[in-house]
Amino acid sequence: EPEVTQTPSHQVTQMGQEVILRCVPISNHLYFYWYRQILGQKVEFLVSFYNNEISEKSEIFDDQFSVERPDGSNFTLKIRSTKLEDSAMYFCASTQPGPSGGNEQFFGPGTRLTVL
Amino acid sequence: DQQVKQNSPSLSVQEGRISILNCDYTNSMFDYFLWYKKYPAEGPTFLISISSIKDKNEDGRFTVFLNKSAKHLSLHIVPSQPGDSAVYFCAAAGGGADGLTFGKGTHLIIQP
Lengths: 116, 112
Prior knowledge:
The structure holds 2 protein chains of 2 kinds.
Chain A: E1 5-7, E2 10-13, E3 19-24, E4 31-37, E5 44-50, E6 53-57, E7 65-68, E8 75-79, E9 88-95, E10 106-107, E11 111-115
Parallel strand pairs in A: 2-11
Antiparallel strand pairs in A: 1-3, 3-8, 4-5, 4-9, 5-6, 7-8, 9-10, 9-11
Chain B: E1 4-5, E2 10-14, E3 19-25, E4 32-38, E5 45-51, E6 56-59, E7 62-67, E8 72-77, E9 86-93, E10 101-102, E11 106-111
Parallel strand pairs in B: 2-11
Antiparallel strand pairs in B: 1-3, 3-8, 4-5, 4-9, 6-7, 7-8, 9-10, 9-11
């Protein structure tokens, strides 16, 4: 069964450093997403991406964040200058809405980002 | 501002009985609702969804009920099995391919 994959599973970085989190969405999906979950809190939407551009973003997704689809399979989230509060699980998701408008998003296993 | 609320942080149910997980929402623009199951250190796994034009959707042991006037939905699992022990998240979207708004989750524990 096709699945969303993410690398790395765990990333440790120093405050102020840049990190790139990588995702391979399900191959026939056209909509891609990033979410995060700070420990003990709910899953929060960051950004959605379609047709090589951002279609929606939350207030969390400020100028230090960017997304890119560098090739036909990868989807990346870059955090330019990490802060302690960026420590969280980051989940990638993808979907291909059905004719009835369904929005079942399929999630990857996540990348745990630890900022020291 | 919690647009999707799951007021029970945890729920304990005996194996074989029915588990009922509840979710309330405040945003009238939501028209698609989903339930996800999550184990520790894994991503959310899609379980079942419902469009606002329906009031019930069933898939095997899982049934989701939607009461639009009350802005309330529930997930019924029957019969409950030990493997159902996990955190269950309610999520909502405005339609199309919008980002999902999640509740805080309910930790379901199935007792043998």
